[in-house]
Amino acid sequence: MFTTETDAVTYIFTSLAATNWRGRGLDENTRDLEPTRALLTENHLPGQAREYAVVTGSKGKGSVTTLTARILREYGHRVGTITSPHLVSYRERIRVDGRAIPLPDFLRLVDELRPSIDRIAASLPENRYLSPQGIFLAMALRWFDENGCDVAVIEVGRGGRFDDNALVPNHLGLFAPMVLEHARYLGPTVERIAWHKVGILKPGGHGISLPQSPGVRAVLESESAAIGAGMNILSPDEMGVYVRDWERGVVMYIDGHELALPFYGRYEIDNASLALRAADHLHQRISGQAAPDGLGRAALEQATWPGRYRRGD
């Protein structure tokens, strides 16, 4: 049995560490979701039905994930989240109702999954690996099952189409702003990057996106149409508007009301706008009822996301 987080995390990264991962190229040529799919299937994960939102983009994914989850909690839901990176502990990546998974449960879940992890990793050819992200996903899904989560909001890594976290059966995909990034792994144009990220959508699902550049917008709309998924790119009247700064963040105006958002940076107004639309959509799917008026705005005023900083803001 594992007795420390360090030992457990070292084990989680063992399969990846045995490969030439630093020299790998484009995700579509080097990433393989089948080992993670096998891990989930072998362990009957997810074991319970719930709603999922998967979040991607080039910036703001963590804020959108956290804010959406906070609003859903205010609406009365039990909410699981997966985010990355972490500040102090890997356990921060897996949360239920904002609380990181406790160390004893983190260690227990690694132990419980270890037979499957060892068997799958041993079966892989050279330079193929069982993704650490996939192992964290399996742990998170079991933790959400054990805690009776009826909804989960899951942040992917740099891409989406070849991201282990996108293996969940999500109806909803959320899209933060996209720019040219990680070109070595995603491709040389913002349109190609958008192709990777729109891959989080499932056939018949639905996407909600912040405003995007024309090239990105075209990719989101064409790819969603190709799989029969809806795509709502938020219009100006669906977005919050900056009013003024205050001592702990910014004041924004949305849906006829002002609210004091305790996040610094005007870009967080966009993230909060997307989170509010996402939470309302998920609540409607879960309950069959419209979101309670005012509770979403109240949740945004109480949200926290400590220690995050983006250069240039």
Model description:
The protein contains 12 helices and 11 strands. Residues 309-313 have low confidence and may be disordered. It has a single domain, classed as Mur-like, catalytic domain (UDP-N-acetylmuramoyl-L-alanine:D-glutamate ligase, 3-Layer(aba) Sandwich), CATH 3.40.1190.10. The N and C termini lie far apart (44 Å). 46% of the residues are buried. Strands 4-3-2-5-1-6-7-8 form an 8-stranded mixed sheet, with helices on both faces. A 3-stranded antiparallel sheet has the order 9-10-11. With 313 residues, the chain is of the alpha/beta class. Helix 4 crosses helix 6 (103-122).
List the defining traits of the structure above.
16% strand, 11 strands, 313 residues, 12 helices, eight-stranded mixed sheet, alpha/beta, UDP-N-acetylmuramoyl-L-alanine:D-glutamate ligase
